[in-house]
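A common beginner's mistake is to predict each chain separately and then try to dock the pieces by hand. The better habit, illustrated here, is to supply every component at once so that their relative placement is modeled jointly.
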Amino acid sequence: MKPVLLWSDALFFLLIAVTIGGAWWGRQQDHLRAGWVRVWGHRRTVVSASVLAVFFAIGLVDSLHYRSQLPLEEGKPPAWSVEVLSALDALLMPLKTNTEKTYSAPLATELFAKETLEEGGRGFPPLKYPGTHLFGTDKVGQDVLYLTLKSIRTGLLIGTLTTLIMLPAAVLLGIVAGYVGGWIDDVIQYLYTTLNSIPGVLLIAAAVLMMQVIIDTHAGWFATAAERADARLLALCAILGITSWTGLCRLLRGETLKLREMEYVQAARAFGGRPLAIMLRHILPNLMHIVLIAIVMDFSGLVLAEAVLSYVGIGVDPNTISFGTMINAARLELAREPMVWWSLAAAFCFMFVLVLAANLFADAVRDAFDPRAAG
Amino acid sequence: MTLLAVQGLSVAIGNARPVAEVSFEIAAGETFVLLGESGCGKSMTALALMRLLPPVAAITDGDVHFSGIDLLGRTEAEMRGYRGGGMAMIFQEPATSLNPVMTVGQQIAEVLTLHGGRPDRVVELLEAVGIPDPARRATEFPFQLSGGMKQRVMIAMALAGEPKLLIADEPTTALDVTIQAQVLDLLKDLQARRGMAMLLITHDFGVAARMADRIGVMHDGRLVEVAAKASFFQAPTHPYTQRLFAALPENLAKPPESPARQGELLEVDALAVHFPIRRGLLQRTVGHVKAVDGVSLKVSAGRTLALVGESGCGKTTAGKAILQLIRPTAGQVHLEGRALLGLAADRMQMVFQDPFGSLNPRLRVGDIIAEGMKTLGVDGSAGELLTQVGLDAGMAGRYPHEFSGGQRQRIAIARALAVNPRLLICDEPTSALDVSVQAQILNLLRQLQDQRGLAYLFITHNIAVVDYLAHEVAVMYLGRIVERGSVSEVLGGAKHPYTQALLAAVPRIDGIAGERLLVPGDPPSPANPPAGCHFHPRCPRAMAVCWQSYPGDTQVSATQSVRCHLFG
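With all components supplied together, the output reads:
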């Protein structure tokens, strides 16, 4: 077995580490700790956080990638399979390998369509693994439950890595624009108004297609198909990040304009404090609640955005399993007679639970940290 | 005849009791003043009478009888008839009490129709509250009116329902002293003409002395003393009231005059701050707001100069420009004989007005105080400074929200002192504080001045504070200093009609009205000051020459000078 560290894995681990570090740092800060105590005060929040935690655990396990060793041949160095598996695959090996021939309904014992049977005549051929596919199987006989579980990582990555990419730009530019003002403010405002006025899907489509061309012309960069798909996923995150920082930036600029006139900032200026020091010491900590709220609120929107983009065909690599690709495939399945509904239903249910939990959690965080909502 | 009888009224918010067993009566046509410091429950009492308490608060006990009717037994629908009809309320902040997207006429007409009046009485009501050109004003929006005008509109709205009782919750606290005098006179006049009873809520002893027939003092939710005005001001009986009286700046024992030290510490010469007004597509400058327009002043080491003026006269801008927080448009500032080109953070510091906005809520008190020391590389300990301003050295590890307003202001003073400045610019440091806390802060400032030889530039609108703390006074009107001199000269023998009006407008606690010189109208906008002397449109003694030229500086004594044509 040979571990494989994809770029997205590294970033995902980094993000988890930063979150844990941030939580540890937050425990030292009275105002943040008080906020989190309020967050955990409601049963609804605890339930939604637990659901999110399960999703994140699945995503984390699915991010431990490896390549398995091929059977040793005499006199040759050990060779590795080209297929990149994850720890989740290992756990779900029966689900992954127990494939049928084609569509079968949830918990069915025979295939969904009639075929010519070996023993003669037409009928529903029996399944190889009857009654084991909780959500049925898809066109090529893969278990739909397996597909949805694999989709979780993609959704989480899009939701979190995009935030990671857009956050520094939004925070930095927002604070600088609001605090420094003048022509710098004009430039930053011009930048985000321009970005905002281009239709988002158009921009993303153009960028993704460009990425596609680059990836296709440099096939040598990637050792495995998984690495190529991963590069495209990261590119999508980057593109979504570049197009989505404007909202938060605008919000932070406005808040900074207000904070800049606060008397404690004036007092710091009266001591001759350098602008950078004032921004870091007086402005940024008083904006953190907005940043926190924006992160959790944006997450669910990004998960949904991935589904929409993949459906339109400009999302993740077609080989990457994601909610979007599942829904895209369901387009044809719904057009069949009789209808194949289960793969859409499974994707819908999992995505619904994930987004609902994220939204409930975001609401609780906003209520706890928004000073205007308090009291 | 008793109009309103309150018996044992108690209000609870959770376990707290902001109002506890309050009983009082108001007779028809009488003015009852509820006097108390912030948080004493006086506003909560008024809201309970109107049954307008916030959802978290509930009336737990007591009776309220209005014209013999039990108000607490009424349904919400029945109460709506009493609110605005039987008793009307006006609030502290006229700026937020009016709907910004409706004309004032519409808003008054709304009240009139609710209480069965004819909507065409709007102009009549506006005239009754002394708004000039009422027919035109009725068609204007709140933003087109000044603060004093808005409060008059609020009063007109309250009168629309022909109330028998007017509840006024700090009606003049947000207004300037000359405007406050106008509004108080108006209220008194309306009350006399309409035979209305009034429940006036205030923290200001002067306002109480001017308006009250009887006074009730509230403390911690309880009504500790009720007395007729005369006996109240001659001989307050409750210890709490006596303490409050002792804390009034007028009553603070003035320490002996320390001899003037030699040498000017600060010299400001023809300082000007003009903000450009930009309009149009290309943001061309079409004019200037002359916030500060040629201010010259001097502060000697160890002395206090009070810069007095009403809101919008440019005194805070002047302070910030002297500190170089705002770049002056023209003029020079000399500190210890050297011209200032940038900040002089180690020699000049500022204490701000709002104790809640001047401390970063995310930093510990120790870090807040150490901020200046760290920036400027000064050695010192936060704990020692905390002790100097009368706090505990152990408080350095706490956060600002754990402190009261007065304590926060002490922290802000400690932060400024940390870098050992020679001059402290105090921008209304006590105007957000209660009277007893204000006295403590004033004493602290005096004590620090004696110990460290500090000089203060004290920016304020509160004349009583000036009398206690200042050695010299400069009076500002619309960006310019109109009169300056020693404190006894200016407060005792003011020459400029504006200074005289300002002093006369301050409600005195002895209740003596004296020769009241009421200035009409509102201060003009600094973007478009009147030609000639800026004060002539409001001046009772304006002459022809006042229309034409701004008066020069006239020296009336060795230390007192005035800018008025009467003396020039």
